[in-house]
Design goal:
Layout lengths: L2 H18 L9 E5 L4 H13 L4 E6 L7 H4 L5 E4 L9 H6 L5 E6 L5 H10 L4 E9 L26 H10 L1 H16 L8 E6 L1 E3 L7 H10 L1 H4 L3 E4 H4 L5 E3 H13 L1 H4 L2 E4 L8 H11 L9 E4 L20 H7 L6 H18 L1 H15 L3 H20 L3 H4 L15 H9 L1
Parallel strand pairs: 1-2, 1-4, 2-3, 4-5, 5-6, 6-10, 7-9, 8-11
């Protein structure tokens, strides 16, 4: 493509973008998703498919279809297998985008600035709105807050001291790299072919189909505590400290809301999270309640040292995030936390039957972490697997089946069969 032809292409695409943005009700016709097969990614892919059923959705990832995403995501999208770290060498992707303009790009998989920089170069002049999924870990590598309370978006400011910044970055490399990704997006806006973007900063995400199995680990620990004979540990520093979480299905709805409000949110960073900020202790107690386990049936131990205590939430040290900006700009109305916990707990209870491979991995990791003696660990793991396999053998196939669709604003996430299955566990 000659420089003159390319200039004409960019002009036409730009004019088309301005026209398509005249009304917030305009649906995207071409959507690109980096990732799209994980916890929030699969939920977002489904939400966008429901929101814009006529849109072509292209997913770029390495081709790993986790949980049941091969059934609920893969058949409804165009999949281009590429490694995100080497996207510039992915010929199939480069060939596909030559004559395509993406109204919306959602990026779940960029963990380094080089990945965002490569995407920005390849997609120059071809993007209406780029939504980058970031993290509250960016506040971990920022200067100390100058106010009380939860972190707000303007708190993500790097230190002027190189030495101090090096220490902050070394303490949280993940937060450092994600903030670098945000900085690359900010820098490209003013460049030729640059595009508007929105950053969604997520605290710890909970929901179905979580490959980190953090929530499921806690759920299994509580559910099987008497068989494991290991109390549920809670570091004293976290026992009553408010923390932020976000529901994966709410992240999906937020992406749709960002699209509809794109004129008002361009080039903004926005925190997401539940309205209610609960402590780790309270979270575990609510999981226990949702499991239907009596208050005195689970042993908890509050430990003195956070460094020496196994814990999975929170992943940050600077506390909760403020979501008032999300409410103001995109009408953020997250699912009530108890409603989300009900759906998630029932998903994983049913998942012990539906996904034996993931259950095996979760139990293996739990036993490996909690039980030091190798023989005791092996014996308990074998006992737990036999326990679930016995239950699984007693189920008819139709009874063990679960509704794998993601919830939306019109329907519940799980069927009556799903709820009945989970109650048996």
């Amino acid at each position: 493509m000659t420089s003159k032809t390319r200039l004409l292409f960019l002009f036409v695409m730009s004019a088309a973008t301005m026209s398509s943005c005249e009304t917030s009700a305009t649906l995207p016709s071409h959507i690109l998703i980096f990732g799209g097969n994980g916890l929030s990614g699969s939920a977002t892919t489904t939400a966008l498919r429901n929101y814009a059923p006529s849109a072509e959705i292209v997913i770029v990832n390495r081709g790993n279809w986790y949980w049941d995403t091969a059934d609920i995501v893969k058949p409804f999208v165009k999949h281009i297998p590429c490694d995100r770290e080497t996207i510039s060498d992915c010929r199939e992707f480069q060939d596909y985008i030559k004559n395509v303009y993406f109204d919306l790009v959602v990026d779940f998989s960029a963990y380094r600035a080089s990945s965002v920089r490569a995407a920005a170069k390849l997609l120059k002049g071809r993007v209406g709105l780029y939504v980058y999924i970031s993290t509250d870990s960016v506040y971990e590598v920022s200067i100390a807050k100058t106010h009380e309370g939860a972190s707000v978006e303007t708190d993500a400011v790097r230190s002027d001291s190189r030495e101090e910044q090096r220490k902050l970055d070394a303490a949280d490399p993940y937060g450092h790299h994600k903030l670098q990704c945000e900085e690359v997006l900010s820098q490209q806006v003013g460049q030729y072919g640059g595009f508007p973007y929105v950053v969604l900063r997520l605290p710890d995400v909970i929901g179905p189909r979580d490959n980190t199995i953090r929530f499921w680990t806690y759920q299994l620990w509580i559910q099987l505590q008497s068989m494991l004979d290991v109390p549920v540990y809670v570091p004293s520093q976290l026992a009553e400290k408010p923390l932020s979480l976000v529901y994966s299905e709410d992240v999906a709805r937020a992406v749709v809301s960002v699209w509809t409000a794109r004129k008002q949110v361009s080039n903004e960073a926005i925190n997401l999270g539940f309205d209610e900020k609960i402590s780790l202790s309270e979270l575990l107690r609510r999981i226990q309640k949702e499991l239907g386990i009596a208050d005195d049936a689970v042993a908890y131990t509050v430990t003195e040292s956070i460094e020496d205590t196994f814990h999975l939430f929170p992943s940050v040290t600077r506390g909760a995030v403020d979501t008032s900006k999300a409410k103001r700009l995109i009408g953020w109305q997250p699912t009530p936390i108890d409603t989300a916990l009900h759906r998630i707990v029932h998903f994983y209870k049913a998942a012990t039957m539906r996904f034996p491979g993931q259950r095996y991995d979760a139990l293996h990791e739990l036993c490996k972490t909690l039980i030091q003696d190798r023989r005791d660990r092996r014996d308990k793991f074998t006992k737990l697997e036999a326990y679930f396999e016995e239950i699984r053998a007693n189920f008819k196939e139709e009874d063990a089946a679960i509704n794998v669709e993601h919830p939306n604003t019109e329907t519940e996430s799980y069927s009556a069969e799903d709820k009945r299955t989970s109650k048996e566990l």
